[in-house]
C-alpha cells in the first residue's frame, strides 16, 4: 500500500453553506419535482412492505460547455455495471431505484441493446406475417421478458434519468434524503461515473460557442480588429500543440466538482449502507485510491476497477478487512448472463468464485 503523504491531506469537509451554494447556483433538472414525486411514492410503497431498497446510479454525467447545450464533455460509462447489478438486486429481493444517464443501458433491455445485440437480430417473421423470436433465442428472450414483466408488475423497479453533473447531484441529494426513513434498509450503490470537473454557471456561455465571428452583430468593427491582430497573431509554439492561433482555440477552464460523498454519508443518508465505485486506469494506484476514498468518506465499501479489466475483475475495499479481489474467467465476463443463469454476484457483470450475498455486505 502506498502511504498517504502530507500533500494528500484531505480538504476540509464541504460545509452546509458550500452545499447550499452549489445547489442554488446550479439549476435543478426541469423534471426534478416530477422525479421526486415518483421516487417518494416508490419509496413509501416499499417502506410500507418492509422491503430493502437500493438506489443504483449508473452511466456517466456530462459537463455542459454552454447553457443551451450543444457541446459537452462526457464521462466514460455504458451503464453495463449498473444495469446488470440492478438485475442481481431484484433477484435478491430488493426494490431498485435506478438513476441512470439518459439512453445508457437499462436492466433487462440491456440484453438486446444496439451496442451488443440488436433486438432485430433475434426476431423473424412468422408464417402469418407476425413477428416472433427465433427458435434458438426464444428461451433466453422469454426468460428476460418474464423477469422484466415481474419487476414491472410488482413495481420493483423505478427508472429515472439524468444527463449533466448538476442534474445527477440534484437527483442524488433529493432521492437519498427521501430514503432516509428507510434507515439501514437503504442501500446506495453508486456505480455512475461522475465528472470531477465542471464549468460553473457564471463562466458558462449562454449560447453555442462560436468558432468564427460570422454571426457577430458588430461584425465590421470586429473584423477590423481581427484583421489587425491576424498579422501579429500569437502562436504557442513553445508547447507541442499545433500551430493554431490562440484566438481560434477554445480554452476550457474547469473548476473541481465539490466532493459531496461526505455530505451524503453524514447528512443525506446517515444510516444507509453506502457502496461507491472507483475507476482508475493505472493499476499502481487503484487500491490506494479506493482505500483513500474509504478513509476520507467513512462509508462501507469501495469497489475498485480498472478501465481495461473492469469486465472480469474488481477489488472490494472495506473498513478493517483486507482487500478482496473478485475475478471471473474473461470468456464468462461478457456473456451478458442474467442472474438466474449465472451464480449470483454483487459486482455487476462479474461472477465471483465465492458467491456473494448483498446481505453480507
Ligand atoms: O458502465 P460501465 O459498465 O461501462 O462502467 C462501469 C464503471 C467503470 C463506470 C463503474 O464500475 C465505476 O467504476 N464507476 C465509478 C467511476 C468513477 O470512479 O467515477
UniProtKB/TrEMBL annotation:
Keywords: Ligase
Superkingdom in the source lineage: Eukaryota
InterPro entries, alphabetized: CoaB-like_sf
Biased composition (Low complexity): 336-348
Ligase in keyword set: yes
Transmembrane segment boundaries: none
Gene3D superfamilies linked to this entry: CoaB-like
UniProt record, GO biological process: coenzyme A biosynthetic process
Keyword Heme on entry: no
UniProt region (Disordered), positions on chain: 336-361
GO MF annotations, alphabetized: ligase activity
Protein name as it appears in the record: Phosphopantothenate--cysteine ligase
Amino acid at each position: 500500500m502506498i502511504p498517504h503523504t502530507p500533500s494528500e491531506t484531505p480538504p476540509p469537509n464541504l460545509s452546509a453553506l458550500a452545499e447550499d451554494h452549489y445547489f442554488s447556483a446550479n439549476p435543478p433538472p426541469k423534471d426534478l419535482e416530477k422525479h421526486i414525486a415518483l421516487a417518494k411514492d416508490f419509496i413509501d410503497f416499499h417502506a410500507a412492505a418492509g422491503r430493502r431498497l437500493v438506489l443504483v446510479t449508473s452511466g456517466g454525467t456530462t459537463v455542459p460547455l454552454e447553457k443551451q447545450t450543444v457541446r459537452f464533455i462526457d464521462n466514460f460509462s455504458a451503464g453495463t455495471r449498473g444495469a446488470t447489478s440492478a438485475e442481481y438486486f431484484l433477484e435478491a429481493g430488493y426494490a431498485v431505484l435506478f438513476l441512470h444517464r439518459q439512453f445508457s443501458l437499462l436492466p433487462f433491455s440491456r440484453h438486446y441493446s444496439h451496442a451488443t445485440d440488436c433486438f432485430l437480430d433475434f426476431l423473424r417473421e412468422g408464417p402469418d406475417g407476425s413477428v416472433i423470436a427465433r427458435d434458438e433465442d426464444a428461451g433466453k428472450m422469454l426468460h428476460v421478458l418474464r423477469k422484466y414483466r415481474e419487476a414491472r408488475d410488482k413495481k420493483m423497479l423505478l427508472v429515472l434519468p439524468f444527463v449533466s453533473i448538476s442534474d445527477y447531484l440534484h437527483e442524488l441529494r433529493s432521492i437519498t434524503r427521501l430514503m432516509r426513513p428507510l434507515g439501514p434498509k437503504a442501500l446506495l450503490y453508486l456505480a455512475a461515473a461522475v465528472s470531477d470537473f465542471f464549468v460553473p454557471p457564471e463562466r458558462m456561455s449562454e449560447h453555442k460557442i462560436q468558432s468564427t465571428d460570422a454571426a457577430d452583430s458588430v461584425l465590421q468593427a470586429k473584423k477590423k480588429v481581427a484583421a489587425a491582430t491576424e498579422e501579429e497573431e500569437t502562436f504557442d509554439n513553445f508547447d507541442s500543440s499545433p500551430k493554431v492561433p490562440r484566438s481560434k482555440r477554445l480554452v476550457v477552464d474547469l473548476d473541481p466538482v465539490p466532493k459531496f460523498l461526505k455530505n451524503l454519508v453524514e447528512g443525506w443518508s446517515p444510516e444507509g449502507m453506502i457502496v461507491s465505485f472507483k475507476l482508475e486506469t493505472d493499476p499502481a494506484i487503484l487500491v490506494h485510491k479506493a482505500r483513500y476514498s474509504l478513509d476520507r468518506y467513512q462509508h462501507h465499501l469501495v469497489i475498485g476497477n480498472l478501465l481495461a479489466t473492469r469486465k472480469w475483475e474488481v477489488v472490494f475495499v472495506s473498513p478493517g478487512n483486507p482487500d478482496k479481489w473478485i475475478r471471473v474467467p474473461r470468456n464468462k465476463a461478457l456473456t451478458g448472463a442474467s442472474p438466474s443463469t449465472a451464480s449470483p454476484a454483487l459486482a455487476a457483470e462479474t461472477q465471483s468464485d465465492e458467491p456473494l450475498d448483498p446481505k453480507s455486505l
